[in-house]
């Protein structure tokens, strides 16, 4: 527990010292939203709710992939070796996952806010929509952290990151889009329990598997 | 004889399947008509693919536990043949879809799941090709194999059951076993599953041997 806390603190401090990376991510999401705004909203008045929803999730997915790719590459190999002697691999992966959840949550909330400002707000049940965002942040960050660990060992990290993560994130993404569609239509909560339960289950599976597999990854 | 009995079994079963599949008597069903014969080919290919994928993950886990490079070779070749079976299943399914649902590729959760599965294994091979070092390649691809399998399983088994699907047994459609297949069809269907799976294992074992010979030759 102590170790976990120290490691998360280290991640946050590291991020704070290189603020340009964080600012870069925020700018990334803002400019992507702006591109969508220019492409959609200027010409045609309004945008279909389904397009609104899907577009937001695609933006969030790309933001997540881009921001998590650097999880393992921003520190040099020598420093990683140093952590290897200090901390347990389980501590490292959990701290990275938790840190990435916080990071993604921040980015997605900023993204959602800007998106609503530019493209309007067709969401009727905002609490459920935010639940979808939270579940999405947890799921994306746990999956992508592990994939980033795998991809960082290879030369062409960024290509590999996209290629490896998209197929395994698809089931989660389709569930998220369905849940957030329910939220947009303002359906009752009990119609979406299935989706929430499945998302929680997928998140749990992914975190458990990362916890078990990361020691093997860390060793190489 | 000890080691070849299952190959003989495989040939016999597949001959039986093909003869029965093309010439046997099948029940007349609306819409399905004669295409119901495809059940001997399309469905067992999926069963075979799932078995081969499971075997691939099994050897990946085994490799991570003991670091024996031979387990990695098993894992790769099982994945390879699983993809091959997946493509065959995809093609037979698409042919079947054209004649029953009127579309080569209808939007169906199971078809999407399989497309994702093929994507996953393609990226598995891209991952493999981006490493030079053998042990490293083996370890990272084993990790990805297990990780992807764990997320692929809910996709195949849970999602199609929640949404509307054209496939029997999903989204309120009755399963094939219920009343489409009579007993004489089952007599062919169950052996067909075993036969196609055995064929997959046979192809895999030949490919593994080839790989081992290449490895020993290069040393």
From TrEMBL, chain A:
- Of which family is this protein a member? Belongs to the CcmB/CycW/HelB family.
Subcellular location(s): the record lists: Membrane
Tell me where on the tree of life, at the top rank, the source sits.
Bacteria
Its placement in the membrane is given as: Multi-pass membrane protein
- What biological processes does GO assign it? cytochrome complex assembly
Q: For this protein, what is any one GO molecular function term?
A: heme transmembrane transporter activity
Which segments cross the bilayer?
20-44, 50-69, 97-120, 126-147, 159-177, 197-218
Which UniProt key words apply to this protein?
Answer: Membrane, Transmembrane, Transmembrane helix
Q: Name one Pfam family in it.
A: CcmB
**Protein's UniProt name:** Cytochrome C biogenesis protein CcmB
Give the organism's phylogenetic lineage: Bacteria, Pseudomonadati, Bacteroidota, Cytophagia, Cytophagales
Q: Name one GO cellular component term.
A: membrane
